[in-house]
Amino acid sequence: xxxxxxxxxxxxxxxxxxxxxxxxxxxxxxxxxxxxxxxxxxxxxxxxxxxxxxxxxxxxxxxxxxxxxxxxxxxxxxxxxxxxxxxxxxxxxxxxxxxxxxxxxxxxxxxxxxxxxxxxxxxxxxxxxxxxxxxxxxxxxxxxxxxxxxxxxxxxxxxxxxxxxxxxxxxxxxxxxxxxxxxxxxxxxxxxxxxxxxxxxxxxxxxxxxxxxxxxxxxxxxxxxxxxxxxxxxxxxxxxxxxxxxxxxxxxxxxxxxxxxxxxx
Length: 265
Description:
Blueprint: H1 10-21, H2 44-65, H3 68-83, H4 86-100, H5 105-113, H6 119-137, H7 141-159, H8 161-165, H9 186-207, H10 211-233, H11 238-261
Helix pairs in contact: 2-3, 2-7, 2-9, 4-5, 4-6, 4-11, 6-11, 7-9, 7-11, 10-11
């Protein structure tokens, strides 16, 4: 049996993750080997430290300068610009594929690969952005900013479990990015857990909110989405990962908003 030995360096893999998951011109400074792009999910939560930090800072400091609703919209816009709406595109394709493809596996995959957006995708994005804005707006600025710092890396860590739980649904040649993520090894899994859980632990410590709900309910959302995706596709795609990431993150904000609004629950 052929054993693949990873010849890439840790800093090259991290650099590839930031190039892949953001629209900042990191590639102008350094271009890592192509092989590194197969490992980007292993450092996906780490990119959330950047995008979540920028979004949280915009909301927090923006609320000191402009009306709070404008600060929330500006924070959402900053992330869209930083990531090029990468995960939002995945959510739209996910909604179109599973909404319009019925139970036909190949039709779902074909719809998700189509660059055009359909009714399900439009409605999905509208509902998602409305819920995101309303949930963040319902929280005090400091609480909302801390929640963003925790939820962004955490949701990426949770969504990365799809790659552990199921195979890729397409061939590498048919992948939209022409890259298939490699299977996550135990050491990479530990690194993922640290990247995703460290900000969450800090958030729970600072806020004193019930960790059971904040940890359990997003995990439950992942589980049901996993069952849904597995039933239809018997595998994941990049669009599925992006959609699950956004939905898990939204769940964190919804749970935090409920706990803040009803502290005795």
